From TrEMBL:
InterPro entries documented for this protein: DUF8212 (IPR058525), HET (IPR010730)
Start and end residues of each Heterokaryon incompatibility domain: 22-106
Pfam families: DUF8212 (PF26640), HET (PF06985)
Protein name as it appears in the record: Heterokaryon incompatibility domain-containing protein
Residue span(s) of domain DUF8212: 221-244
Length: 527
């Protein structure tokens, strides 16, 4: 680490094990700062930025400190390796400093009440790099344009909170910082700016607890790399609590505005990672089937991946997912975030999805993929008489489109597994109905049974581990031989009437490749 001798103004290098106590400067850059190469020039004092260097050295000596660190002149920015090391180490350097000196070059008052009124207008609060310089140090003091001490981080805590929305307990405490959700930490930078686009990512490295190489010239890609690095290190779904509608990752910290009170769920340790297929959520991912009142073009029922909550779990928020194909989802473009009161969530049906992928970057070119899984798939239209209660296999079932998707995105995929649905009928005393679809050949066929007469079938298909992938027709016929006797029509006798109920699969729309509808019809039989 390179430090300035506060007495001689000479630069001195120290190994990590031999670094003396030092003061560190936090400021906003001007047009004529003192650089690393200027420090060896006899004309260094003519630079406008020299005043800040000299004042920092004076204040350090007043506190019996012999060394200071100033970012403008303690880093050789002509060396990309040194710059990368410095930026990745900067949070630690500010944290380990004995004292941080914040020099506000646009703050004139020195009287406390006037300082508190003028403080929010200072440029220092709007810069990206100064965020970690506020949070990291153990001790931090503010000085006005003339170098007069105007207050400490503690004495100005109320004004600081109004400027930043950062909880006081986080300031100066690394452990408290890391308890905050990723979304909250991102939100603190939402209104800040940096001169270089890439620096909006690099200035957050220490706050998010990650390291990565610097690539100036990559633009917004730096912020994407930052988020990918966070995903590798933290099991915190709040990183997806951002506003872009089509993708999972944000373009900048601005997408996290208003998330300063968003918290991760306690004891939530989902295993997720970035892959070339998308975001992989390993194990069982709890999704909730929720009714969404939104755009009329969207289906009434959506799968919601809850990311976290506000306050004391009173309001939870998540993102809506649309099923693209088996185990493949995307973020719904009609919604950025959806919100639910805590009591509402428990009433939503829990839908476990195992080892799923969420496409990270969705664009129109991927619409063809979604359509290919739906071409000649099996659709369950809503009717007034028959109400769908369940459908398997869950891997293929899309509750939003009410469709059993094809297992592969081909013209037609023959499928050896049983496709099954349970219905109730709005006919008094009518038992539950089970529709079984056989897609081993095309076109697929449907048969019908009454669940109370075929309890064995219901136990085999709708309970336990087979819900996810169902079971092969061969196994079902082996365990329930009566399945071979089923047809597409059954007779149901109630206390007062008799009915004939039939099922068929029909392509009721004229468009090529349109799905096959499950059509249930009922005819009352004469007594």
């Amino acid at each position: 680490m390179r430090l300035i001798n506060a007495k001689t103004y000479d630069l001195e290098d120290f190994s990590l094990k031999a670094i003396p106590e030092y003061a560190i400067l936090s400021h906003t850059w001007g047009d004529d700062e003192v650089t690393y190469h200027d420090m060896s020039s006899p004309d260094r004092s003519v630079r406008q930025g020299w005043y800040k260097v000299a004042q920092t050295c004076r204040i350090a000596q007043d506190h019996q400190l012999d060394y200071v660190w100033v970012d403008t002149c303690c880093i050789d920015k002509s060396s990309s390796a040194e710059l990368t090391e410095a930026i990745n180490s900067m949070f630690q350097w500010y944290r380990k400093a004995y004292k941080c000196i914040v020099m506000l070059s646009d703050l004139v008052p020195s009287i406390e009440d006037e300082v508190k009124r003028a403080l929010p207008a200072c440029r220092w609060w709007s810069r990206g790099w100064t965020l970690q310089e506020l949070i990291a140090p153990r001790r931090l003091n503010f000085y006005n344009a003339s170098g007069t001490h105007v207050g400490s981080r503690e004495s100005l805590s109320e004004a600081i909170n109004k400027c930043t929305n950062i909880p006081s307990r986080v300031l100066g405490s690394r452990s408290a910082l890391m308890t905050m959700s990723v979304a909250a930490r991102m939100s603190w930078a939402a209104a800040r700016e940096t001169t270089r686009v890439e620096d909006m990512a690099y200035c957050l490295l220490g706050i998010l607890g990650v390291n990565m190489p610097l690539i100036y010239g990559e633009g917004d890609r730096a912020f994407r790399r930052l988020q990918e690095e966070v995903v590798r290190r933290e099991s915190d779904l709040t990183i997806f609590a951002c506003e872009p509608k089509h993708g999972l990752f944000a373009d900048s910290a601005r997408a996290f505005r208003n998330q300063e009170n968003f918290e991760r769920y306690p004891n939530s340790f989902l295993d997720f990672s970035v892959t070339n297929r998308g975001l992989r959520l390993s194990g069982q991912t709890p999704l909730r089937l929720c009714r969404i009142n939104g755009n009329p073009r969207t289906p009434p029922w959506m799968l919601v991946l809850f990311l976290g909550h506000f306050g004391d779990l009173t309001t939870s928020s998540g993102i809506c997912l649309r099923k693209v194909g088996p185990k493949l989802f995307r973020k719904d473009p009609e919604f950025s975030m959806v919100f639910f009161q805590g009591s509402e969530i428990g009433r939503r049906r829990l839908f476990y999805a195992t080892d799923i992928y969420v496409i990270i970057d969705w664009d129109e070119s991927k619409n063809l993929l979604s359509k290919s899984f739906r071409t000649r798939a099996i659709h369950v239209p809503e009717t007034d008489i028959f109400s769908l209660q369940d459908a398997i296999p869950e891997t293929l079932w899309d509750p939003s489109d009410r469709m059993l998707l094809k297992p592969q995105p081909y013209k037609w995929s023959r499928y050896q597994m049983v496709l099954a649905m349970r219905f109730t009928a709005a006919i008094p005393d009518t038992p539950e109905l089970v529709v079984l679809c056989d897609a081993r050949e095309y076109p697929p066929k449907a048969v019908l049974c009454v669940s109370q007469d075929q309890c064995r079938i219901e136990d085999l298909l709708f309970r336990g581990s087979r819900r996810e992938d169902s079971m092969p027709w061969f196994d079902l016929e082996l365990h329930a031989p009566s399945i071979r006797e089923l047809s597409d029509t059954i007779k149901v006798d109630t206390d007062s009437k008799s009915y004939t109920i039939s099922v068929s699969l029909r392509q009721q729309r004229l468009e090529p490749g349109s799905p096959l509808d499950v059509v249930l019809e009922v005819v009352e039989q004469p007594q």
